[in-house]
Structure formats: structure tokens, C-alpha cells
Amino acid sequence: MSAEKKKLIGRLRLFFTNAKPYLLMIGLQFGMAGNYIFGKDVLNHGMSRFVFIVYRNAMATIALAPFAFFIERKSRPKMTLSVFLQIIVLGFLEPVFNQSFNYLGMKYTSASFTSTIVNAVPSITFVLAVFVRLERLRLAEIRSQAKVIGTIVTFGGALLMAIYKGPAFDLFHSESTTHHESGSTSPHNSHQTAGAIYILMGCVALSSFYILQSMTVKRYPAELSLATLICLAGTVEASAVAFVAERHSRAWAVGWDYRLYAPFYTGVVSSGIAYYVQGLVMKLRGPVFATAFNPLCMIIVAALGSLILGELLHLGSIIGGIVIAVGLYSVVWGKAKDYSEPKLPSANAEDTKSLPITATDDSKIDIIYGNLEKQPSTNQKLEETNKVGDEN
Predict the structure, then answer these.
(1) Residues 39-75: pLDDT tens digits?
(2) Rounded distance, CA 119 to CA 324, Å?
(3) How far apart are CA 122 and CA 147, in angstroms?
(4) Rounded CA separation 31/34 (Å)
(5) Residue from 236, 246, 158 nearest 202 by CA
(6) DSSP letter at 314?
(7) Helices 192-219 & 99-108, crossing angle to 10 degrees?
(8) Among the residues of 47-140, which ranges form H helices?
């Protein structure tokens, strides 16, 4: 093989390596759009959201378990008590808390409204990451200013959507879909503010999930196994909640209809595959990057919601969505600057020790820091030199 071909292959490999996180997250957004469509459809049919969450996570567990068992049987690390407790908390944050409040807010609003509000997750994730010291915030730097301004703008857009509705628009100009939407969801739209609050509560839980997942995946670097265990923990915890909330056996009935295909799709794609892809991307780019592609999902859901569910887009949602998207990409721009300037460890061991190791730092920093710690100090070297001189 000639040198030119080797160079071309090397460039292609580098390109696909750099593009891998972007391709994974873009593909995931198309799959996640179905979560909102199926979720809203199943709620419109009257299925209990508590039972739906149980079936969703149970099917995700069943779908992922065989792949996790065979693919990672040799590379799966040993389970520790701290990792086990983190998985229990992860199962509560996303499968139970986030999904429950998201579906409750969706019941009062619409699929497109919910997918738009969820765009606030990156900004909430950034705020939480700063509190737990996974993100660096230096207001003198432009990138930090962009993150702060973007966070404020994002919350402003979410607040606008919560308090302002405005006139409605039908994307596909269909009288039948307009009549269907107004007849099925107009009672819920009157509770738009309450729905927005519920969705934002779910967003806080989801952001907390991303932060903790980024920590856990470093201590338990087996993405498929971790995703399976999270789904299993979510199934058990959601079952406990559902048995208290839904005591009638009819609520648990399953047939060859929406009660089967909706939990199956959302479980396999939105829970199982999403957990795996997010964990994989977080290892490469961190928790904020993994939440930066939600506007694409918002656009897909708006189109499908109008076409399939007959939902109307309101002016407040459109303006709020644009404001949220602007704030989101301000945060993402600031985050991208973190990668354009690689962090170099200080020559001083004490300075290196104070360097913040975040979810987005390269693992080489940990290796360098470990090697610096193993090196003897200057005083130890002098003592050894004097000791050798005395012996001589």
C-alpha cells in the first residue's frame, strides 16, 4: 500500500472518529422523536402513565440484557456497593421521576410542547455540573460568559412558553386534524403553565441523571450492562409506584394495540438504546454535549405531531422554541471552546493536584497526574543523596 493511500485511510479514520459523537446523537434524535409521539398517543387512549413506564423499562431491560451479557461478558468490571447505589439512584431519576413528570406535563399540553421545553435540559445540566464541579466557570472567559448567557436565555424561553400561548397554526392545513386536535387536547392546553412546570421538574431530574451517569460510566465502563441495570432498577422502582397508584387489574391489561407497541418502541429506543448511546457519547464529550442536539428532535416532533396527532403549534411555543434554541447553542458554543483549547498539566505537582478533573477532560490528565504523584519530592531526593554520601 502506497504512502498516499495510508495517509488517506488515516484521514478518513480520524474524520469518522471525530464525527462519531455527532452521528450518534443525530441518529438518536430521530429515534427519540417517536418517544413523544407514542407517549402522547398512549395517553390520549387513556393508558395509565405509571403502568406505561413499568412496561417501557421492562421491555428495555429484556431487549438489552442478551447483548449486555454476551458482548461485555469479558470486559464487564466488578460490581461495587457504590456503583450499585448509583444505579439505584439513576433508576429513580430517569425511569421514575423524569418519565412520570414528562408524561404528566405532556398530558396537559402536547408532544411538540414537551419536546420544546426539554431543550432546557442542557442549560440545567450545565448549572448542576458547575455545582458538582464537573464544569469550570470563569466569568472572565468568553466561553464561560456564553454558557451563562445561554442558560439565562434558555430559561427565559421556557418561561415564555409557560405563560404565553398565542394563536394556533396547523402545519399541514388539514381540517380533520385540526378538529381532532381541538377536540382531544384543548382541555389540557388550558393547563399549559402547570404542564410546563411538570416538564421542567422532569428536566431537572433528567439533568441530574446525566450528571450522575457521566460519573458512573467512568467507574463502571460497560455501557450496555450499565444501561440494562438502569432499566432493571427503573422497572422495579416504577412497579412499586404503579402498584400503589393503580390498584385495578384493568389498568395492567396488555393487547395487540397501542398498549404493546408504545411501551415496546419507547422501551427499546428511548430507554435502552438511548442510555447506551448517551453513555458512549458522555465518555467522549461529557454530559453537556450529549444534550445539545434536542432542537433537532423538537423539529421532528412538531412535524410528526401535526401530521399524526393533529396537534396545533401555538405562537408562544414557536417563539419560545426559537429563544430556547438560541440559548442552547450559546451554551454549546461555550462548551465547544473547552475542546478547542486542550488543558495542559502544570509542571508543579501541587498546581496539578488542584486542576479540576471534569467529565470532559482527557483521561491522559489522570495518567499524568498519577505519574507525578508517584515521583519522589525534592526533599526526598536530597535525603537519598545525603544518605548515599554518608555511606560512601
Answers:
(1) 888 888 888 899 999 999 999 899 889 989 998 988 8
(2) 7
(3) 10
(4) 6
(5) 158
(6) E
(7) 160
(8) 49-71, 81-91, 99-108, 111-117, 121-131
